[in-house]
Amino acid sequence: MTVGNGIAREWQRYTRRERLGRFALYFGIVLACVASLRTVEIIPEFLYDAPEQVADLLRRMWPVEWHYYPKGVHEVLIETLHIATLGTILAILMALPLGVLAANNLTPSTTLNYFAKFLLVSSRSVNSLVWALLFVAIFGPGALAGTMAIAFRSIGFVGKLFSEALEETQPGPVEALRSCGASWLSVFIKGYWPQVEPAFWAIALFRWDISVRESAVLGLVGAGGIGMAIDSAMNLFQWQRVALMLVVIFVVVLLAEIVVTAIRKRII
What we know:
It is a single chain. The chain has about 270 residues and is mainly α. It is built from 12 helices and no strands. It has one domain: MetI-like fold (Orthogonal Bundle), CATH 1.10.3720. Helix 5 runs antiparallel to helix 6, helix 5 runs antiparallel to helix 10 (about 185-220) and helix 9 crosses helix 10 (about 185-220).
């Protein structure tokens, strides 16, 4: 390549700094992989016979014990759906105020803004199983612990997405309402809410879909639902019943996906 003063310059896709940055990134990934392989103890003998163990487990699960569903699965399945639904509703009720406080354009106070964001990050940073363990220790085993675990895990998800939707609203309708002397509540209901309502319903439905999936495993730590039945069946080596419950969970998650998609098409 020749520039205007006649000096030839070679075109390069990346600058020297960009090449060093890419090298540092790749080198860091390699170091992380090496450190992980050295830290995680992998027993080769367990890997060699893994296909044989999987085949043996599948043979134990067949035939599926379908007749056990009315007696031992239906009730805990309904309880799982109740945990997911009530937990999502509680999360929405608690997350909406935090989402408003975390939105920069609605909350001028930096202290309140960062405090709300801190609470949202704290909720997301703790896994749902850890929340379940904490609430099982507080309330004891059962559906209440699972409901609270789903709720507190979902606050950060719902609140963050709702605050981002509020920050992306157009200022025109809001400024028009404020110029007419409307109160803060009127500005929010008439100016902000119509713009974020589609996003709100999308967030709520998506979070409920995720909660259905999570609530199915919370019972493994005693937080109610079908997970407790799976844990009990596994401890008693009742693999045919375990297979039944896995099939039921798959069907419920698939139906939840279909229902959520249909509702979103009608509302949004």
